[in-house]
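Side project, low priority. Logging it here so it doesn't get lost.
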Amino acid sequence: MLGGLFVAFDGVWLIVYAAYLPDQVENTPYLPTTYAILGSVGIVLGIIIIFLATRLKSHPETSRSVGLFILILSIFSIFTGAGFFGLFFTFMGGLLAMTFLTREQRAQAIQEAAAQEGMAVVPAGQTSAGKACLKCGTVNPSGNAYCSKCGAQLPS
């Protein structure tokens, strides 16, 4: 999201710069218009990147496709004067989103890797000898509902 903010702010900067540019440059009358258009595109890209970043929070299962789209937008933001920080944060955010795994995806990947190695995966809080207390770490017999040491409720 930070990268999207930088891209949008750089777009605003380009538009403001384009407003003052006609006074500076006499031989290139098209330059202020070009900067204004690029600045507008930068603002739109920044808003899209911010929207996609907030969408990732509510829909983490779409992280790969949204991350790829953010990555592509970060490359396009180079042409809108996004600057180093906008490009860097947007590019890194896209890469991180593409490699993000939800808890369910991570657990599935661990189980698949363990199955390939011929190992069994024990759910969190349980051991082969019984149930481990998540509060104090004591291993309790499988039939216990509460920890024999601290009294905390054991995972089912």
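Brief comment: The helical segments are 2-24, 31-58, 63-76, 83-99, 103-117.
Revisit when time allows.
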